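Before the break, one more example. Copy the sequence into your notebook; we will annotate it together after we see the structure.
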Amino acid sequence: MKSIEVKDNTLKEVLEKSGVTVLDFWAPWCGPCNVVGPIIDDLATANEDIQVGKVNIDANGTTAAAFGIRSIPTIIFFKDGEKITQISGVKPLAELQKIVDGIKV
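Here is what the structure looks like once it is written out:
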């Protein structure tokens, strides 16, 4: 499954779903974000049992502000709607998968 686009008006619905959710906060003009984008898609494809979404901070400033996003790319990991951890910068798929696997337990 590919990642989904998450907007200010769909965030609540996304986080209300049970299980693991991963949100990538990015912007089209951000070089590192463009590197992370395909990695996030790969994470979504490899984990059909989780939700993986992308939040364009330029178009969804309310959501970015609500999570205090100060640098991008930032990836936030949730379980049952509760924030578990967040990381910033370009990370390899293996590192993201390790975090997801730890949350699934």
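The chain has four helices and five strands. The first strand starts at residue 4 and ends at 5. Try to locate both features in your own notes.
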